[in-house]
Specification:
The chain is of the alpha/beta class. Helices cover 41% and strands 23% of the residues. Strand 11 and strand 12 form a beta hairpin. Bound molecules: flavin-adenine dinucleotide. Flavin-adenine dinucleotide (FAD) binds next to helix 1, strand 3 and helix 11.
Amino acid sequence: MRITCVGGGPAGLYFAVLAKLADPAHDVTVLERNPAGVTYGWGVVFWDDLLDDLFAYDPVSARRISDAACRWDEYEVRATGKSVSHLPGYGFSLGRHKLLSILGTRASELGVDIRYSSDLSVVPDADLVVACDGAGSAIRSQDASHFGASVDMGRNKYIWLGTKHVFDTFTFGFEKTHAGWIWYHAYPFDDGTSTFIVECTPAVWSALELDRLDGAAGCARLETIFARHLGGERLIDHRAEAGGTGWMSFRRVTNQRWDNGNVVLMGDAAHTTHFAIGSGTKLAMQDAMALADAVASGAPLPVALERYEHRRRADLVPLQRAALASSEWFERMPEYADLPSAQFSYALSNRRGEYPLWRYLLHLSTQRSVPRAMLRSALSARRWNRARRRPDAEMGVPLLTGG
Ligand SMILES: Cc1cc2nc3c(=O)[nH]c(=O)nc-3n(C[C@H](O)[C@H](O)[C@H](O)COP(=O)(O)OP(=O)(O)OC[C@H]3O[C@@H](n4cnc5c(N)ncnc54)[C@H](O)[C@@H]3O)c2cc1C
């Protein structure tokens, strides 16, 4: 089968890998508009569930991703006028750049033809065209009315930055300025860099002149606001460095249909998930798994594409709901700002509104160091056990951070 993926993000590259693994005779091409090695995002987080899936589908790339990932083992919440509080949980983070490099290398090893600097806006000729060209998909736009694409804009403004300050663990930081609250979601993703996503309401954004300042001046203002969190390090805005603007509103993309003849949507082109729950990359790669399974089943293409869409829509529902609740919490964040420290961080952790009462009691008790250390040890053991059960056991990988 001749397969062309338009877009060499996580979805496109991973699907190319899986299609080749399923049948080396497939002729698989990935067309990516950026030059090799160029991407604007920073690190992304993921959890054990994705690693389990990656090891099940391709242990080779899974091992490389796991080895390159940074581990963190709790959340910290820092807010002006409140003591630091802690939330249980652990996860992984990896630079988007590194992830794409691992997937691109793996795809090339398997014989995928990756053509960088190929900006495509017309549907290419192939047996199967996978439109994985991101939230603003040009392929989808070719037939927008067929796909029934709709885009809801989130209210808050955000910017995806990086910094050489290495955070100890996943940190939410809230600063109260003369204009109102502004906050960040930050986490280390290698031993020298952290992701630093800044978010605020549009009113605060304008009042702090972030709507008018150019990239460098905007970063300088944010460095002043968040100085006590950054250990003297700068904030880096790749998009501004490339002449673009980094501030955005989140675009929630949905589509009524995901396929049109031999063209199928995948990843952010099909659906986006707010970064507040850090799952878009995971969902994009799980789309790739589901599409690869459907194509490998040998069913006629229309049936395979229908099965893929059906499976993924069902899987997406709970996460989409959680993402919406989460992004709405951040839109209402100033309403929670007067809560005492532990209640504020609990409201943040329970922003999806799902926790039973015992979680609150656990939260209060784990603000003290001994119960917190005990809980961290228990979660660490769980992480270790889960890793041990994977096809390629990863025992002995040291914790890079927060350990
Ligand atoms: C601030 C922020 C933080 C995030 N944090 C996380 C996180 O922590 N964890 C997580 O799981 N997810 C996170 N995400 C979401 C994640 O980045 C996306 O969901 C994920 O990248 C989707 O993968 P994709 O392959 O579908 O699309 P993309 O990653 O957008 O890739 C699409 C590719 O297509 C290329 N392309 C576009 N148009 C064309 C064209 N016309 N021709 C050829 N190529 C084209 C693009 O250059 C790009 O390489 C975050 C998103 C944002 C905005």
